[in-house]
Amino acid sequence: MNSSKGTKPALSFFTTMEIVLMAMLAAANAAMSLYLTSVNQMLNSLGGPIATSTITGLYMVYGLLAVYIIRKPGTAVITYGIGAVAQSFIGTAYGMASAFAAAACYMVIVEIVFALLRYRKWNTGVMMLAGAVMVPLWFYFAAHMFGYTKWDLNILLIALVVRMLSGAVLCGLLTKWIGEALIRSGLLRSFAAARREEA
User: Fold this and answer.
1) Degrees to nearest 5, angle at CA 27 with 22 and 32
2) Considering the domain boundaries, does residue 97 fall inside one?
3) Domain that residue 55 falls in
4) d(CA 5, CA 138)
């Protein structure tokens, strides 16, 4: 008896338009990350690790935006996965390992958050919560990869809080704002975000 009878490839769960959107957002993020590197360096020279923490949310927004628009399990896995590959090809100042590690942390947290909500709640509070809770797991691994553990404990905690606030605002709130703007424009008529009433 063939236990795989009736199963379909994972990507068949998504429409062509959805796959294209995920790839486009991932590619756009890879390009944007190059410019954010110079901004990050400038902030570091002005205010050290606390200042650089203020833009953390911008690095995560593309995957959460894909999830907000498509609203299907696995969207974060695919989008952040493509994003890590794209960054590796284009180049990243922080190394390939960091690109894949960050993507893995983001995708796991986002999928857990919306699985718990059964992919039904998309209000501002939920989006900001998702943006905030994406931060700690990657911060833990980044602390060991980049030597944050050498920072004073107070600096480490402040940086974490600032990054979570950045995640809430520059990832969660910004995603909500962009998503609503795209829905109003009519560009998302083929996607779940435009078809389902928000909870």
Assistant:
1) 125
2) yes
3) 14-194
4) 38
